[in-house]
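Hi support team,

I'm filing this because I wasn't sure whether my run with 6-diazenyl-5-OXO-L-norleucine finished correctly. The job status page said complete, but I'd like someone to confirm that the output block is well-formed before I use it downstream. Pasting the exact inputs I used:
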Amino acid sequence: MDYQAILNIIEKELESFEDEGKVADYIPELAFVPSDKFGMHLHCIDGGDYSFGNSDEKFSIQSISKVFSLALAKKHGSKIWKRVDVEPSGDPFNSLTQLEKEKGIPRNPFINAGALVIADILVSCLDNPKKDLLDFVRLIAQDDDIHYDEKVASSEKKHGYRNIALVNYMKALGNINNDVDDILDFYFYQCSISMSCHQLAKAFMIFANEGRIMGTEEKAIKSNSTKRINAIMQTCGFYDEAGEFSFRVGLPGKSGVGGGIVAIHPHQYAVAVWSPLLNEKGNSEKGMRALEELTTLTGLSIF
Ligand code: DON
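And here is everything the job wrote out:
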């Protein structure tokens, strides 16, 4: 498969794409990102790298980090599934409404409520949660040049009223053990991780390669965990647009309000795309389009 030729076609085709999306501005720091950024990187299981555009430029990975925190919680053998469910929510990522009826158990680990419970689990089981998460991401990406963005973290901390409400509400319902400020601090930092498409594609190879780190073949997580996490990416990775992403792209994936999307084709590749303009569901419109083109032009998806 000539992936570079396919990526070149996607870049060309989307040159004239009329994007009606908007940059996320509820985290004020994200509104400063130029909206015309566009990059894509595909990392193959045979080690091949293919890319175009701003694929080496770092951006805020936001909710993509929820896949890393879930993987780290699984690695530590934490008991997760009594406290977080694995059902699509059909609601926006920051919704509060299901929690009341469902006794403070979030529908899945990728909506904000679920990721806050995972953050609580990590704060309980790690000695130094922020350092340990960053070390884990650096290990699986095989790259130490990955950092938290303090400006983005403090910008979200100042305006994160919904997350503050979510964690307090779950605490009231008995599903949060630690101090809410410690959980929020960890969560805002995890969302602020800055990575390029290139780094994300490499890191996500553990999910395409049964938990193995590219290049070292060391197992970062068990193959059974990748099976579970990929299933949750497929069904819940795009919130109330998960069905649309499955329908159009046909790969497990995860988006973030920084405009990034990562998807994996098991035993084949991991691919990351970045375009900051978001549709009303909070997903990168052009990014989804690029991935749809990728699976159409290659004729390969998991379906
Ligand atoms: O908690 C938030 O609202 C953000 N830090 C992350 C949300 C996000 O990326 C949703 N993804 N599309």
